[in-house]
Structures are given as structure tokens and as C-alpha cells.
Predict the structure.
Amino acid sequence: MGEGTVFDGLTDAAWAPLCRRVQAGERAVEVAGQAGVKLAALYRAQRRLGLRVADLPPEARAQRRRRAPRFEDRADDYRYRPADLCEGDWRRCAALYADGWSSEALGRLFGRCDSVIRRGMGLRRVARKPTSERTVKAPPRGLDVPPRPSADPEVRAACAVELDPDDLVASLAASDAAKARAAQVGLPQAVGLLCNMDVAMVRAAKARGRLALLRPGGFAGSPCPEGEGEAAWAEHGVVLHPHQRAPEGEWATWLMLGGRGAGKTFAGA
């Protein structure tokens, strides 16, 4: 096929430079994000054009391979990934882990998932000390340390949001506004903490049976409006599409055949 043939929105002539950037050592996810294409589409183009990293000669792959320094050779401010803990935090985490702290407690203390802590300790081969040699008292098993949003007062101030336990939509809107302000002043940690708070609010609302319809014109409280028929829903800004209405005439059974997102469940309700 010619270079003018379009695959996944781009021609082969446009895909080739992107594939060569990945071969040269750039991360595929960053190249795809900068080009505005899907990562899977970039992988398909690499296979189709024969421009994968595996297609490079052995000597070129050896030159491309970038090895991270050993754990003991890393400086305290070294980060293997931008979103990862710095090596100084990993060393403090390893010391507490060796003294008997649980991965759940360390995850709460350092703001990371417990599985990330366990993986980091496993890669560093940190072993537990005998009970007689432990110097730092570990928290009781099953109890987590209080969450520490951040040691930075600016992040704490950015996470201060007024929430209404009876109005999920207003609470999420206040959180979105706080995230926008935090992003403008360059506080990504505050944005992440606010996103985690959004998830916790939705889970709590679902557990209480007060999950609101998160759509324009939706309503909070009971999942069903008072009254019957389409008119009761229309008062709350919910309007059925033509394909969601029952056909004219007297029908005992009728079939609605549609793909994902067609509104089948809502029409049946």
C-alpha cells in the first residue's frame, strides 16, 4: 500500500516519524499523547511498518536501552518516574517497613496505594526486622495512620472544599472548581487528592442510596421522580429519544435493538 493510504486517521508517511521517535528511545505513551493519537494505534503502526523496537538490530537495541542506576547509587531526590516517590521517601518507607509497619499504613502515610508500596519493597528486597530489633513502634495491625494530604500548606489550602452531604452534584461542582484552581497554580498533587475525594463521595452516596443523576438538569435524592410516565422525567430535564419510546399501537412485547450507549436500560425503566 502507498504512503497516502490512511490508517487510524494518519497516513504511513505521518506514522513513520512517530514510530522512529519510539525506536530512538522516547516513551510511546508520550509520543502518542503529543501527536493526539491512541497508543494502540501507534503500536499497530509500528507492527505494520516494521518500525518496532524489536525490529532494530541488536547493537541498536543495546545502545537504546537506558538502565536506571542501582537503588543504593540513587540520590535522595532521584525519581524513576515523574509520579513516583523520590528515592529519599523510598528509603524512609523501607526503614518503617522493616520496623513492622504494614503496607496499608505506609500507603496512607506516603499517599500511595498499598500495592505500590509492596512492589517497591519487593524490588528493594526489604526484609522485616526481628521484633527485638525494631526501633520504631508500628501502628496496630488493621489500623491505618491518619491520611496526610501533604506537608505543603499550599496543597492543603487548595484541597479545602465546602461539601454538602445532601447534595452530591453541588459537592462535585465545588470539587471541580477547586481542581481547576489548583491546576492553574500548578499543584498536581492537590488535583489528585481532590479526584480521590470525588471517588469517595460517589461511593458514599451510592452506599447511602442517594446517588444523584449526574447529568445536566438532573436531580439529587431519590433515584426516581414522583409520578409516572415520560412527563414526570421531563420535569427534571430528562427527555426520551424517539427510538426509546414504545411503537404506536397495542403491543404485548416489542424489541429495542441498539449498541452501547443507546439508552436501552433507561428506556426499559
